[in-house]
Design goal:
The chain is an alpha/beta fold. It has one domain (8-202): Rossmann fold. Helices cover 48% and strands 16% of the residues. The chain contains 9 helices and 7 strands, in the order E-H-H-E-H-E-E-E-H-E-H-E-H-H-H-H. The protein has helices spanning 17-20, 29-40, 57-71, 100-114, 131-151, 158-162, 166-175, 182-193, 196-199, and strands at 8-15, 44-51, 78-83, 91-92, 95-96, 120-123, 154-156. The strands form 2 sheets. A 5-stranded parallel beta sheet has the order 2-1-3-6-7, with helices on both faces.
Length: 204
């Protein structure tokens, strides 16, 4: 059934637990909040949250196309937002789960294909309550920005904003060391809402 309210847009959000909204007792995360805001502005949003907890870019690379193409057939106005990377920088068995080089390669492969099929946005990985991992994630975000610039994909460095947010960092520390609660996701959502990359999707 097609809605008669505003412009119909279908959006897939691909990533890990921050996309999933883990820790938010309201079960909206940042993805639900920005779609709710777009709906209030008159857009008919169908939104698919495809966040998988604990997933790395290597795992995401294997699944994203099948999941997205099933939900966004070409006859619809489908768009895709990716946000991942924090799990790549987690230490496991003495090394990061995914090397910096492989993370960069994964992003290039994912975006090179995705941008030829859909309008695409990329949001950086997020900070947690671990200074050493945050440095690795910050370095990864810098490299991700370079890839997105090279591929002409709009990139939001949310890491640099969230690590300065007392609300985000306090909630992460008091909850499980990695995820915020509702107020933290509200901060995330507000940053995305004010991002030109997102705003450009909703210009009449």
């Amino acid at each position: 059934m097609t809605s008669k309210v505003g412009k119909e847009i279908r959006i897939c959000f691909i990533g890990e637990s921050f996309v999933n909204g883990t820790g938010d007792s309201q079960y909206l995360g940042w993805t639900g909040r920005i779609c709710q805001d777009a709906c209030l502005k008159g857009f008919d949003i169908t939104y698919y949250n495809l966040g998988v907890r604990g997933e790395t870019s290597s795992e995401l690379k294997k699944r994203w196309l099948q999941e997205v193409s099933y939900r966004l057939p070409q006859k619809y106005d489908g768009r895709v937002i990716f946000s991942f990377g924090t799990n790549d920088t987690t230490i496991e068995n003495g090394k990061t789960r995914v090397s910096l080089e492989e993370s960069i390669s994964n992003l290039k492969d994912i975006l090179s294909l995705a941008k030829n099929l859909y309008p695409v946005l990329m949001i950086s990985p997020s900070p947690i309550d671990d200074k050493e991992q945050n440095q690795r994630t910050c370095d990864l975000s810098t490299k991700f920005a370079e890839v997105c610039h090279e591929l002409n994909v709009s990139y939001l460095d949310i890491f640099s904003e969230l690590i300065k947010s007392k609300i985000w960092m306090d909630e992460v520390k008091s909850y499980d060391g990695a995820h915020p609660r509702a107020a933290g996701y509200q901060v995330f959502a507000e940053i995305v809402r004010n991002w030109q990359g997102w705003a450009n999707w909703f210009i009449e």
